[in-house]
Amino acid sequence: MKKSILAVIILTVFTAFGCQMSSGQVKKYDPKRKMSKTPAEWKKILTANEYHIMVESGTEPPFQNAYHDNHQKGVYVSAATGEVLFTSDDKFDSGTGWPSFVKPVDPKKIEVVTDNSDGMTRDEVIERSTGLHLGHVFDDGPADRGGKRYCMNSGALKFIKK
Description:
The chain has helices spanning about 1-15, 40-45, 50-55; strands at about 75-80, 85, 90, 100, 110-115, 120-125, 135-140, 150, 155-160. It is an alpha+beta fold.
């Protein structure tokens, strides 16, 4: 019984912090971040949710986003540029409530930078061409597929069905 309760607590903590900051929190825009457009320019292009996630490095609630449970075949493109970033062939169910991938389509299209926000050090994934936030990458993905878990925000992506 105690092991079951402990497992539920660990799963809850993992889900809450497994990919992103707690839902609704906003990391202040960092003027040192090199973005291809100013925040004002991005605000005119992106939806409010896309802007929150991609420019302000916000996040969406786990299990309450467009692609966490998407099992269709296709590609995931940047919501900002339309560049193909991930494919359904590399998507897996991580149990975290966010879409997770074992690798990007082209590692040159993303950049991994250190994120020291929220009292943690994590590896943040940004779109290389824009400098916009996509999510985080962790070393707890499927071992037989490289061991990485690219934990992305649905709001930073658009799905194109095959």
